[in-house]
Amino acid sequence: MTEMRLNSCILWEEDVDLTEKQIERYSRHIILEEVGGAGQEKLLSSKVLLIGAGGLGAPAALYLAAAGIGTIGIADGDRVDMTNLQRQVVHHTDDLGREKVKSAAEKMRAINPDITVSTYDTRLNADNISGIISDYDFVLDGTDNFPAKFLINDACYFARKPFSHAGILRFDGQLMTILPGESACYRCVFNSPPPSNAVPSCSQAGVLGVLAGVIGSLQATETIKYLLQKGDLLTDCLLTYNALKMQFRRVILKRSPGCPLCGENPTVTELKEEEQEVCEL
Questions:
Q1: Does some domain include residue 27?
Q2: What range does the domain containing 207 cover?
Q3: DSSP code string of 122-172
Q4: Does some domain include residue 278?
Q5: pLDDT by residue (tens digit) across 114-154?
Q6: CA–CA distance, 231 with 224 (Å, rounded to integer)
Q7: Burial class (CB in 10 A: 0-12, 13-18, 19+), 10
Q8: What's the pLDDT at 4?
Q9: b/e for 130-145, b at 16 or more Cβ within 10 A?
């Protein structure tokens, strides 16, 4: 039995093994009835993979590190570019030209030396993604292109790995949490990638920098809720956000019987990288 002193409160919990420094560091978590010492221990023993160290992955990485997620993997094959700094808050000006995973890992470890950060300086593909996600409890999709999002969805479905999907463009963001085999998957909603030039990228259309912080932080929130098994997850629900109107909207979803991945007669039966068709203008 461990005595935990938080401010003027004394909490008693069975089978909690946190150091005095950890009790102090995570005190604002521990004092929450929904977390407590046992919940914080659960976070410290959990493993989360961030795919993408960009706009969405940057704030998520910082908050998950601060929260005490014990092992955080971060996968990204890019280098830090000047245009990233407007929204990718885990990277600093001195990091220009560095591998994003190394830049992000350095800041995460600086925030919290309790955690282990594993880096994958590579672009995930159909050949390597299954081996990388296999060791993690939850996956966070912070990628910025449709083929990667479909690949992550399919890989997590086959491996039965829960994950958070999100996307941002201009002033709009969206996210949903997917429990493979239980809730609607990404293909239930979007089926297949749009033609390659049908939807502009952030580099073409722009994106409000702080929007990445809002949506990435919500992904981190969903991750922590899943690990703690507390609250209502964004399963069977697409949450959209418009920054100009400061408006959130929930779109209720359900698994599609005709889904090519998780439907009644699936046609996607193995991992492959989607090729986007060219839109004829």
A1: no
A2: 46-192+199-252
A3: S---TTTHHHHHTT-SEEEE---SHHHHHHHHHHHHHHT--EEEEEEEBTE
A4: no
A5: 999 999 999 999 999 999 999 999 999 999 999 999 999 99
A6: 10
A7: exposed
A8: 52
A9: bebbeebbbbbbbbbe
The identity of residue 125, as a single letter, is N
Tokens of 276: 């986007």
Collapsing DSSP states into helix, strand and coil, what is residue 207? Answer: strand
Q: Which residues pair with 3 in a beta bridge?
A: 12
Q: How far is CA 230 from CA 33, 124, 127, 153, in A?
A: 11, 31, 34, 23
Domain count, the chain: 1
Q: Which of 3-17, 124-138, 149-163, 173-187 has the lowest mean pLDDT?
A: 3-17
What pLDDT does residue 6 have? Answer: 52
User: From edge to edge, which strands make up the β-sheet containing 237-242?
Assistant: 116-120, 71-75, 47-51, 138-141, 163-169, 172-178, 237-242, 247-252
What is the CA 73 to chain-centroid distance, rounded?
Answer: 11
Give residue 8's pLDDT band: very low, low, confident or very high (50, 70, 90). very low
Q: Is the pLDDT of residue 277 over 90?
A: no
Distance CA 62, CA 84 (A): 16
CATH number of the CATH domain containing 113: 3.40.50.720
Q: How far, in Å, CA of 225 to CA of 63, rounded?
A: 13
Cite the active site residues: 202
Q: How far is CA 140 from CA 6, 64, 156, in A?
A: 32, 11, 10
DSSP conformation class of 22: H
- Is 57 a member of any domain? yes
Specify the pTM. Answer: 0.92
- Summarize pLDDT for 188-205 with one digit per residue, the tens: 999 888 776 667 777 788
